[in-house]
User: Fold phospholipase A2 from Rubus argutus.
Amino acid sequence: MLGGAAVTARVAASFAVVVIFLTSVAHCSSNDSEATCSRICAAENCNSVGIRYGKYCGVGWTGCPGEKPCDDVDACCKIHDECVGNKGINDVKCHEKFKTCIKKAQKSGKVGFSKQCPYETVVPTMVQGMDLAILFSQFSNSKLEL
Assistant:
């Protein structure tokens, strides 16, 4: 019986995460992309789903056309933005390549642009975000049979 309660709690927690994520995606997708482009290097909410890092990192944010990334992790975000722009938000390969890119940037030993949000904080946060995106992509790409 205890096992069933634990499963129910996990399902409820997963459902809550899904609702929060979808709400933030829906809100961000309704924004005008030109209005949310960035010309400055941001470092906000570095250890949460609401992360903004550099010019290109964060749900609903991207750099303005012609803007150079702030560092290697931000460059990975720029590449990811371009990938999902071309292939769609549900393209798992875009998300997997992004995870590989940011992990490589972290392992390079380079220091990011922000002392407030070091790679040791932002990379795990972004990996978790991409793991959620992959999960949602798999749900949306699968055909549900009743």
